[in-house]
Write a structure and sequence with these properties.
The chain is an alpha/beta fold. The protein has two domains: about 15-140, Murein tetrapeptidase LD-carboxypeptidase, N-terminal domain (Rossmann fold, 3-Layer(aba) Sandwich), CATH 3.40.50; about 160-305, Glucose Oxidase, domain 1 (3-Layer(bba) Sandwich). It contains nine helices and 14 strands. The strands form two sheets. Strands 6-14-13-8-9-10-11-7 form an eight-stranded mixed beta sheet. It has a six-stranded mixed beta sheet with strand order 2-1-3-4-5-12, with helices on both faces. α8 (about 215-225) packs parallel to α9 (about 255-265). It is globular and about 50 Å long. The chain starts with 12 loop residues before the first strand and ends in an 8-residue tail after the last strand.
Length: about 300
Amino acid sequence: MLIKPNPLKKNDVIGLITPASTPADLSRIEKSVRYFEKIGYRVVVGKNVGKKYYYLAGTDEERVEDIHSMFENKNIKAIFCLRGGYGTVRLLNKIDYNLIKKNPKIFVGYSDITALQMAFLTQANLVTFSGPMPAVDFYDNVSSYTEEIFWDLVTNIHNKYEYKFKNNIVSITKSSARGIAIGGNFIVFNSLIGTKYFPSLHKKILFLEEVEEKPYKIDRMLAHLKLNKEYNKIKGFVFGQFEDCTDNNPEENIEIENLLRQYLKDETIPVLYNINFGHIKDFITIPFGIRVSINSSNKTIKLLESCLNGD
């Protein structure tokens, strides 16, 4: 049974952790704390935040310790990952998913955090949020677009919700469908294929984005995904931004839209591209695990149920 976290209320405590990499500028942590306190929340920073172990924010044991302690702490109502980076896949077989299942709370992040979000969904049935990270999006010059959508979704019960986009949305196909939202960062999502942490693709809408990967790598990811035995069970695709995904060699560079069309233009399912989603300033928050509808003819995306517990 799907587990939804409780809405966040003013004066609630937000926990900050670094399950992937540490912020290059540690002053961003304090700046984000001030941001949360200014808008009415209290903050607890994880015990191991600020540590560094090669390209990771501490050892696997230290990063898992912060995840477990935040879920165990009854005072913590939401957990925000300060940034992405690398290394969350290393943690998946070290996490106590029963602990998470028994202590559901709002969990937010994107990029490398995708691995944790898919693991929490498959192993604990917990709805998580692909949304802003404090040391990236909530420390300075905060986007009002990103901010408004995020806080609305984590504080209010919406039985239905329709996104308003800033970008010019591209329809690769023209169709409509309903399904369950999953996905995240494309390369991290694909890295879970073949493991128990990879979600079933049956009746799913995939939300995918990428950053700083050359087109030939995106090509390989699309081919890999299409070879999955459940590929034909996918109900639709929503592709966000593919930031800096170009090749400096003009002879080898291919526009991402062109690449997506090569793979998906003949599909009967809806496929949208250029959504406000990914490693960009103005982006939507996506709750993974809930029912959504997409229409690639009129370029709409709607949440069909609340992503929060309404009891």
